[in-house]
């Protein structure tokens, strides 16, 4: 919900919480203040922020930089940068490029407007990529997403001095959104202890994802129908 407040695509309010980004980010800032009052000064608070929600007319990078600057003046302890949304029709950064990290250039811009610790999530496929991103000074912490879907114990392996890089599956002629569907359904398998060491079928994963997405789309449309 806080992410939707930030986006002019979803936030169509005309009161003090709508319109300019200064207004749209007020619910987030108020939530931080309220949370800080409840947990005290020593409890860590992190905010995961989109660099963009990858939707036309939605939350963009300039808005995101404005929010980062505001978070720098808040009591948060960590800003986790990512991007995209699960709204039907949104593009996935991972489906658009085989390279990573996806949002490192934005993180470099964010580094210029905040001294808060920065975490970057999205597109890290090797330990070398993670180490290089931290060494660059742009970020302080690496967030692993799909790499953990393939090897949930990867951080422990790296900490132990073992440096295997996850074996990422390659799918030929994957339709737009197909790779996202595969990872989403594999994550569902992990959550229900049904995963295997073999990569599952892309076509079946897409079918399963579409069934689930169809149900979610109905919910979205009830709230955001034109």
Describe this protein's structure:
It contains eleven helices and four strands. The chain is of the alpha/beta class and 226 residues long. Strands 1-2-3-4 form a four-stranded parallel beta sheet, with helices on one face. The radius of gyration is 19 Å and the shape is globular. The model has no long low-confidence stretch (mean pLDDT 88).
List its traits.
alpha/beta, 11 helices, 46% helix
Q: What is the N-to-C succession of helices and strands?
A: HHHEHEHHEHEHHHH
Could you say which structural class the secondary elements and strand pairing correspond to?
alpha/beta
Shape: globular
Number of extended strands: 4
Please work out how many helical segments DSSP would assign. 11
Rg (C-alpha, Å): 19 Å
Q: Give helix % range.
A: 40-55%
Strand content of the residues, in percent?
5-15%
Integer average pLDDT: 88
Low-confidence spans:
none
């Amino acid at each position: 919900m806080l992410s939707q407040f930030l986006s002019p695509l979803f936030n169509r309010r005309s009161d003090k919480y709508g319109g300019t980004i200064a207004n749209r980010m007020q619910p987030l800032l108020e939530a931080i203040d309220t949370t800080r009052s409840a947990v005290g000064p020593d409890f860590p608070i992190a905010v995961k922020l989109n660099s963009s929600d990858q939707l036309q007319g939605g939350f963009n990078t300039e808005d995101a930089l404005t929010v980062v600057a505001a978070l720098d003046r808040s009591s948060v302890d960590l800003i986790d940068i990512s991007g995209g949304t699960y709204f039907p029709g949104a593009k996935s950064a991972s489906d658009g490029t085989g390279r990573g990290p996806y949002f490192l250039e934005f993180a470099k811009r964010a580094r210029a407007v905040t001294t808060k610790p920065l975490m970057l999530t999205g597109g890290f496929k090797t330990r070398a990529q993670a180490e290089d991103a931290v060494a660059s000074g742009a970020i302080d912490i690496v967030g692993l997403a799909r790499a953990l879907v393939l090897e949930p114990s990867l951080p422990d392996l790296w900490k132990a001095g073992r440096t295997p890089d996850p074996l990422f599956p390659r799918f030929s002629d994957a339709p737009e959104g197909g790779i996202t569907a595969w990872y989403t359904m594999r994550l569902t398998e992990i959550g229900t202890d049904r995963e295997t060491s073999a990569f599952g079928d892309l076509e079946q994963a897409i079918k399963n994802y579409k069934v689930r997405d169809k149900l979610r789309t109905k919910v979205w449309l009830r709230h955001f129908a034109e």
